[in-house]
Automatic annotation (TrEMBL):
Its main location: nucleus. Belongs to the cut8/STS1 family. Residues 1-47 are annotated as: Disordered. Pfam families: Cut8. This is Tethering factor for nuclear proteasome STS1-like isoform X2. Keywords: Nucleus. It comes from Chlorella sorokiniana (Freshwater green alga). One of its GO terms (molecular function) is proteasome binding. GO terms for cellular component: nuclear membrane; proteasome complex.
Length: 191
């Protein structure tokens, strides 16, 4: 009987090359079993997949696809995008208007006219920076806030009796704004 170190004889035994091939075909006990394939069930539709993604994920996906296409998709994507949904903008603008007016009215009720003068100018600046929309309906909160704040400013001007230098400073601040503030300008002696 041949020892383990001897090569098997060519009679009925396998050569060492054949033994290696046979061993390499047999699974070893130390390697993991092959991964099971998931069952092929119905795949979700693309629209369902997109609905489940967050805004950040969708932006990342579109940018990645455009980058993969060498930037060639940007024009097509831009042309296909619908206009922004402005209905979501209305409530925050109305909330901003309410907050600005609430604080101004509180100062007027407390007869803090010097503070009301400063606050009215600040709040008019905030109101002036609110977006201007093509549709008049979307501009209502901005114009309503401007009109109410202008009324508070006129009230403060009459009650606080600012010096001529202070009046000039207020007028200068109003001139920087794009809001229609005729009543405030008239109260300052400017037309």
């Amino acid at each position: 009987m041949p020892s383990d170190s001897e090569a098997p004889s060519s009679q009925g035994g396998a050569s060492s090359g054949e033994e290696y091939e046979a061993a390499s075909r047999e699974p070893s006990s130390s390697s993991p079993p092959p991964a099971k394939r998931p069952r092929a069930g119905p795949q979700p539709k693309l629209t369902d997949l997109l609905k489940s993604a967050s805004k950040e994920q969708l932006v990342s996906l579109v940018v990645h696809l455009n980058d993969d296409a060498g930037g060639e998709l940007e024009g097509r994507i831009s042309a296909l995008l619908p206009p922004p949904d402005l209905s979501r903008v209305g409530p925050p603008l109305r909330d901003l208007k309410a907050a600005l007016l609430e604080h101004g009215r509180m100062l007027a009720e407390c007869k803090r006219f010097g503070a009301l003068l400063d606050y009215s100018l600040f709040a008019l600046g905030v109101t002036d920076s609110m977006p201007h929309w093509d549709a008049d309906a979307h501009n209502k909160p901005k114009l309503q806030a401007a009109k109410a704040l202008e009324g508070l400013l006129v009230k403060a001007l009459k009650a606080a009796a600012p010096t001529p230098d202070q009046r000039a400073q207020v007028l200068q601040q109003l001139e920087r704004l794009e809001l229609p503030l005729q009543a405030a300008r008239a109260a300052l002696g400017a037309a």
